[in-house]
Design goal:
This protein is an alpha/beta fold. The chain has 2 domains: 190 residues, P-loop containing nucleotide triphosphate hydrolases (Rossmann fold, 3-Layer(aba) Sandwich); 72 residues, no CATH class. The chain is 30% helix and 22% strand. The protein is built from 8 helices and 10 strands. The strands form 2 sheets. Strands 6-7-8-3-9-10 form a 6-stranded mixed sheet, with helices on both faces. The chain has a 4-stranded antiparallel sheet with strand order 2-1-4-5, covered by helices on one side. Helix 4 crosses helix 5. The longest helix is centred in the last third of the chain and has 18 residues. The chain is globular and about 50 Å long. 41% of the residues are buried.
Length: 272
């Protein structure tokens, strides 16, 4: 279990002093005849951890896709503080450069080493047709990222030879090597041994506290979300049903979010 938040962890009070990193205003997403997200309006506080929770099919992964600009919104607006709206191509390009994602299924290339997979996190920083070796600075950053997740000793092992938990940790390193301003994580602990959850949770919290990263993390473990997050967003049936501090997300709020009489939804695809 990740260590619970403490006053020492959060130097800046929750509200109203935190500045927004990203603001969504009336955002909807439709796939075919199905509306996946319905008029989402919320802010993502900067330099903080926001946990997104909700039942399967609620739209959580799609929500991450909207935040990183991979999934366009139908109507409404997504605005990044200091950059502008994501419907402007130049703003979208810069926002994507500043954003990294930790995928639930780690998405590694098995024939490449752990180091080479981490370096792919910097692929947009060099010409796509370049045959030159990776710059020394990039390799140093990749080694540092692997060290942060405790895998430097496996840097030259092929990803296909790593365990599921090790592969997920390489996915963490690949995101961290980008030194992102916005870090998105889609159930990143699903393939990790419980003994490593605390360590990787501490890695993410240090990225927020020391590096000024804004973290949005989808979690299915409610107690974990309440322990690690500064803010919780609750999604159900594509609607934002809860926005508040962890200590406000009590049993009654959880019961409303996960109440069993909601009609079943087919499992959402992961597009984040």
């Amino acid at each position: 279990m990740i260590a619970a938040r403490s006053s020492a962890d959060n130097v800046v009070p929750f509200q109203p002093l935190w500045r927004p990193a990203v603001t969504l205003d009336g955002c909807s997403v439709r796939r075919g005849s199905r509306v996946v997200l319905r008029e989402i309006a919320c802010t993502i506080p900067a330099r903080a951890i926001t946990a997104v929770v909700g039942p399967s099919g609620a739209g959580k992964s799609t929500f991450l896709g909207v935040l990183n600009g991979l999934i366009p919104s139908l109507g409404g607006a997504v605005e990044v503080t200091g950059l502008g709206r994501l419907d402007q191509p130049a703003v979208l390009r810069e926002h994507r450069r500043r954003t990294a994602t930790i995928f639930q299924e780690h998405a590694l290339i098995d024939r490449l080493t752990a180091m080479e997979n981490v370096l792919l996190g910097l692929a947009d920083r060099r010409h796509p047709l370049s045959l030159m070796p990776w710059p020394v600075e990039h390799r140093r950053h990749a080694a540092e990222a692997l060290a942060r997740v405790g895998l430097l000793s496996r840097a030259h092992d092929r990803a296909g030879r790593l365990s599921g938990g090790e592969r997920q940790r390489v996915g963490f390193a690949r995101a961290l090597v980008r030194r992102p301003r916005l870090l998105l994580a889609d159930e990143p602990f699903s393939a990790v041994d419980p003994a490593l959850v605390r360590h990787l949770g501490d890695v993410l919290r240090r990225a927020v506290a020391a590096d000024g990263v804004t973290l949005v993390i989808v979690l299915h473990q409610i107690e974990l979300a309440r322990a690690v997050a500064d803010r919780i967003l609750g999604l159900a049936e594509g609607r934002m049903r809860f926005i508040g501090a962890p200590d406000e997300f009590g049993a009654a709020e959880q019961a409303r979010l996960f109440r069993p009489n909601r009609r079943p939804k087919e499992k959402e695809e992961c597009h984040a």
